[in-house]
Design a protein that fits this description.
The structure holds two protein chains of two kinds. Chain A is an all-alpha fold. Chain A has a domain of 206 residues. Chain A has 14 helices and two strands, in the order H-H-H-H-H-H-E-H-H-H-H-H-E-H-H-H. A two-stranded antiparallel sheet of chain A has the order 1-2. By secondary structure, chain B is α/β, with parallel strands linked by helices. In chain B, the strands form six sheets. Chain B has a six-stranded mixed sheet with strand order 6-9-10-3-11-12, sandwiched between helices. Chain B has a six-stranded mixed sheet with strand order 18-21-22-15-23-24, sandwiched between helices. Chain B has a four-stranded antiparallel sheet with strand order 2-1-4-5, with helices on one face. Chain B is globular. Classes of the chains: A mainly alpha, B alpha/beta. At the A-B interface, helix 1, helix 9 and helix 10 of A face strand 2, helix 11, helix 12, helix 14 and strand 20 of B.
């Protein structure tokens, strides 16, 4: 009987006690270290403080949108509307500041706007019963369209905010640095990520998100409110998009209807590179962060080597496919 | 079924050995099948049956040993080679394309051509001929998705035969079939036997072997234990060979103390999704008492599972009145059912019972989250304690609580499902096919667990397609036919025949005529 038990089990060892997502995080983490070391050794400018801060600021966008998408992917869905939702919230906050709404109102309202887009996504998916891919493709166009209609396709600038003090205060969020050079946006990203990581791994709704993505029917029959759980995940994604929109418009001192175009796809790519499964049920915030760092380091490093953005695109795509192929192979072997 | 009449040996495996890293899966195993013979192959889960069959069909290669077909040595080193040599397998989990027709499925990958285009007419004619030869009355134009499991299995068999297979492996072919469908399958097997096809028949249902097989071979822990003529061996002797220890009874003897009504469902109705003019669920009154095991019998598709899903709140019933311990309760979602002390261990643990990619601890605690959470956050240590306690209580064999559930054996997976409900202190446990696809030893453990539960006053509703299980475990039996309760029986007084009678829609009192074979297959579609 003992021999029989062993047949269907993989080899035992310390590693077997780690979750799949943790193993993936270790794998992609070592990839990240390799990549980082490579650039650090080959290009002296890479490790300069200015470049490192630049890198971190680039990573902020991927990370925050990536957090939201990680929630959606783990619960078995996806959110293609994140980039458009980000543009909408970015416009919202700058527009409100311009008409004189105080910052402590404008920012929460814009964040709520993000949650609203999440609720709408959840509604189309869970209540109207449209598959997430198509539903959020549709809402993406709705949000993007609304953003364009709102500003007639033109950007708005924070320099048009009546009060100079508000202009500066708003810039600090996304562009400001602490006395030890660390940008506030990086701190916000880190704190927000830590909060979401706790929600995902330690809260009831976090566990339910995994259960929904792993086996929706089993989750439902275990008394889990699957509709509400997925709704929550879409709201997290909408909220993250809004937060990202605010930080980006702050850093760029402007909001554009075309902001964030394609960010959702890059965030999905980053999450997958970091080890979040597109099939649901697997992944963590750590995976999302590692993925975002890989994307950021790659782009930053290639920039330093003066490799054109068209080549960069091709290289990023190649790495994504290669990483997934490796993962798929590993999966087949273990199955 | 004299051997000499059938032309002697067709297929032989000798001294087969196969090792996987760290474990010897097969050690010097032999098996021989004669022409027109149905050869039983039994053993507990993990005994090496599947590995042997995979070697036979070219999925794995043996480390040592030799295979002969009609006396000449052959090398089966790929599934394609196995196909060419006429060796085919019907897996327990069927592999058909649900959106294609019967004929498309039979000829998948090698359509009949008329010049450059596919000739549907030739293909359907060829499919018709194969089905007729086997005595299968399916329409070749039917889309496979609309067929019952039994009918899909027939399509699989027809597909295998279309490759001119001479050796057919049937892996637990009756696991999901009802008694009547089993008879139909046996008729097909008889047809194949008359054609001289040799068959290896894997099954956990020992009583079936006596009906269909001449000889049976037993594997245990990768070792070849022996081959016997079924007419020379008793069931206890066979069970002894399988488990390597004697088991006095398949069902633990038990006296039950039955209390008051724990759950009562009145007027449960739900329309049939496919045919709105009739009810899929139409139950006037169903009750179960504390400490009682209520057996629910009926054909697959009769609506047994659907009734339970309505009671559990997983499907919305058009009308339902539920009383728990005499008090009316509203259950509109599984969450509310669980809060009211009802648990539901599903029929197919892989499909809707477990999250296979998540670990054991996660699965055990899955329905327990509301009790582990404080202010929305999970108390990890309490979760670990809970999982550990129930792992030990149910003797779940797993290297750690962090083990991915997919890697556990069927019996241990079932224990995880049970643990998930037990830790919720359920007062009513609905359990759907509690021992499907798990081995003899694990079955016995599950039965003992159910007995312990009923001892502690839990009311158990047990759906089962295995009549000995219904008779051996239940106190009371209700038989479902077309969504209605077609009769209630005392388990100690009744017989398998009586249950089958009711399940077929025959009413014992009114003397309504029993439906014919064809009615059943029509009703399944």
């Amino acid at each position: 009987m003992n021999a029989a038990v062993n047949v269907s089990q993989p080899k035992q060892g310390a590693l077997s006690n780690l979750s799949v997502a943790t193993k993936k995080a270790m794998l992609s983490g070592s990839g990240l270290i390799l990549l980082y070391t490579f650039f650090a050794v080959r290009n002296p400018n890479f490790l300069l403080r200015a470049n490192q801060i630049n890198l971190l600021q680039q990573v902020v966008t991927y990370s925050i949108i990536g957090y939201g998408l990680t929630f959606c992917l783990i619960c078995g869905g996806t959110d293609l509307s994140a980039g458009a939702s980000m543009a909408l919230s970015g416009i919202m906050v700058v527009w409100m500041l311009r008409v004189g709404v105080p910052m402590w109102v404008a920012i929460p309202v814009s964040l709520c706007m993000g949650i609203l887009t999440g609720i709408l996504n959840g509604f189309t998916i869970e209540i109207l019963g449209i598959v997430p891919f198509i539903a959020t493709l549709g809402t993406q166009w709705v949000y993007r369209g609304l953003a364009n209609v709102w500003l007639n396709g033109n950007p708005i600038y924070t320099r048009d905010i009546p009060s100079k003090a508000v202009q500066e205060a708003f810039y600090v969020l996304g562009g400001g640095r602490t006395s030890f050079w660390l940008p506030y946006s990086v701190i916000i990203t880190f704190v927000y990520g830590a909060m979401l990581a706790v929600v995902l791994s330690k809260s009831k709704v976090g566990r339910q998100i995994y259960a929904c993505g792993s086996n929706p029917e089993a989750a439902k029959l275990s008394g889990i409110n699957t509709v509400g759980t997925r709704m929550f995940a879409y709201c997290v994604s909408g909220f993250s998009a809004a937060l990202c929109g605010i930080l980006v418009s702050s850093r760029l001192s402007s909001a554009q209807p075309t902001a964030g175009t394609g960010y959702e796809l890059e965030a999905i790519a980053a999450a997958v590179l970091g080890g979040v499964s597109v099939n649901g049920g697997e992944g963590s915030i750590v995976n999302a962060v590692i993925g975002a760092l890989i994307m950021g380091v790659l782009r930053n490093g290639l920039n330093l080597f003066h490799i054109g953005s068209f080549y960069q695109q091709a290289i990023t795509g190649f790495i994504l496919v290669a990483a997934c192929a490796l993962e798929a192979r590993r999966h087949r072997q273990s199955a | 079924m004299d051997e000499s009449q059938r032309g002697g040996e067709l297929f032989r495996m000798e001294g087969i050995c196969k090792s996987f890293p760290g474990v010897k899966a097969l050690d010097n195993v032999s098996l021989s099948v004669n022409k027109g013979e149905v050869h039983g192959l039994v053993g507990e889960n993990g005994a090496g049956k599947s590995t042997l069959m995979k070697i036979m069909t070219g999925v794995y290669r043996a480390d040592a040993g030799q295979i002969y077909i009609e006396g000449s040595p052959v090398k089966i080193d790929s599934t394609k080679k196995a196909q060419e040599l006429g060796v085919a397998i019907i897996f327990q989990e069927l592999n058909l394309c649900p959106h294609l027709t019967v004929a498309d499925n039979i000829f998948i990958g090698r359509p009949k051509m008329a010049g450059p285009v596919i000739s549907d007419r030739a293909m359907h004619a060829a499919a018709r001929k194969i089905l007729d030869d086997l005595g299968i009355g399916l329409n070749t134009h039917t889309v496979v998705r609309q067929l019952s499991v039994a009918q899909q299995q027939m399509v699989e068999i027809a597909k295998a035969i279309s490759f001119n297979s001479r050796i057919l492996v049937l892996d637990e072919p009756t696991a999901t079939l009802t008694e009547k469908e089993i008879q139909q399958l046996f008729a097909i097997i008889d047809t194949l036997r008359a054609k001289g096809v040799g068959m290896v028949y894997i099954s956990h249902r020992l009583e079936e072997l006596g009906h269909i097989c001449e000889r049976v071979s037993v594997l245990r822990d990768g070792q070849y234990i022996g081959t016997r003529y079924l007419k020379d061996i008793t069931t206890p002797e066979l069970v002894n060979m399988i488990v390597g220890r004697s088991m006095t009874s398949k069902f633990p003897k038990h006296e039950r103390k039955i209390g008051s009504v724990a759950l009562e469902a009145v007027g449960v109705r739900r329309k049939d999704k496919l045919n709105a003019s009739r009810y899929k669920v139409d139950v006037d009154r169903l009750y179960v008492r504390a400490g009682e095991i209520l057996g629910v019998a009926g054909l697959v598709g009769a609506g047994r599972t659907e009734i339970m899903r309505c009671i559990f709140g997983a499907d919305r019933a058009e009308s339902i009145e539920l009383k728990l311990g005499g008090k009316r309760v509203r259950v509109r979602s599984p969450g509310q059912a669980i809060a009211n002390g009802i648990g539901y261990a599903t029929e197919d643990r892989r499909r809707d019972g477990l999250s296979l990619m998540l670990d054991v601890q996660y699965n055990i605690n899955m329905a327990f989250l509301p009790r582990l959470a404080k202010m929305g956050f999970i108390n990890d240590r309490a979760g670990l304690r809970n999982a550990e306690q129930y792992k030990q209580l149910l003797r779940v064999k797993t290297p750690s609580l962090r083990q991915i559930t997919r890697y556990l054996s069927g019996g241990n997976q079932q224990k995880v499902v049970l643990a998930k409900w037990l830790c919720n202190n359920v007062r009513v446990l609905i359990i759907d096919e509690p021992t499907r696809g798990i081995d003899v030893g694990a079955k016995f453990e599950v039965y003992e667990l159910l007995n312990q539960l009923s001892d502690s006053g839990v009311a158990i509703i047990m759906i089962s397609s295995e009549l000995p299980e219904i008779l051996g475990m239940s106190d009371r039996v209700i038989v479902i036919h077309e969504g209605k309760i077609n009769g209630e029986l005392d388990a100690k007084q009744t017989t398998q025949e009586e249950i089958l009678y009711l399940a077929a829609g025959y009413n014992l009192l009114e003397g309504k005529s029993a439906p014919t074979l064809n009615d059943r297959s029509a009703a399944a579609v």
